[in-house]
Amino acid sequence: MKVEANRIIGILLCCIMASCNTAKKVIYMQDAPDGMTKETGAYAGIVVQPKDILSIVVSSRNPELAMGFNLPLQQYQAGSSEATFSYQQRLIGYQVDMEGNIDYPVFGKLKVAGLTREQLSSMLKQRFIQEGQILDAIVTTEFMNFKISVLGEVRNPGTFNIDDDRITLLEALGRAGDLTIYGRRDNVLVRRETGGHTAFHRVDLRTEALMTSPVYYLQQNDVVYVEPNETSSARSRINENRSVNVWISLTSVMISLASMIILLK
User: Which domain holds residue 193?
Assistant: First the structure.
C-alpha cells in the first residue's frame, strides 16, 4: 500500500510540474512585476513609402480656394446583384510612385517619401502660405492603404485594414483573435519592408522586453507570423501519415502500456 501511495503521489507531482511548465509557455509578459512602470519603444509615426495611397484634404474659410487642391469623389457601384446594388462615393487618393513622389495640383511633383502624415500636412500648409495660395489652409493627411497581415497559429488569420496609423503588435494579434494554444509565444516573427529592403524581427511575447522591440509598433504592410509549437507539428505529422503501419504501431504501443499498467497493479 505504501508503494502504491508513493507512486500516486509521484504521478500527481509530475502532473503539477507539467502544468506549471505549460503555463510558463503561454503567459504573456510573465516577468513584468506588478505596478512596474516601463517606457515603450519610441513611436515616431509611420512614414510615407513608395506605393502608398494618401488622402490629402485641404480646407479653408473660402471653399473655392481649396476646391482646386482636393481630388473629386469617385462614384462606385456597391451590391452583389441588380436588385441590391447602390451607388456610393469614396475619396480618390494620391499614389506615391517608386521614387517617393506624388503629382500634386499646382505644385507638381512633390517628394513625400520618408515624411510622417503630420510632416506632409505641415509642408503643404507652408507651401500654400509661401506661394500665396491659401493663407488659412488646414491640411489633413491620411493613409488609405495601411494594412497588416497576421498569419499562422492564430484564431482568425488574415489581412486587416487599419484606420489609425498607430497599432502595436499585441493589438494586431488581438484583431486576429489571439494565438491558439498551439502557437509559439517565444518566437513570433515580423517581416518588414522598408526602402526596398526586407528585415525580419523575432519577438518573445512572454517577456516585457517586447515593448522595447523595434516592431512593437507595426508599420504598413508588416506581416506577423506565429509558428506552431512542437505539439502542433507532431499532430500535423500524424494527420498527414495515415498508413496502416502507423496505426498498427500505435495500437502495439497502447497494448504494451496497458500490459505494464496491469502488471504494476
Answer: 146-228
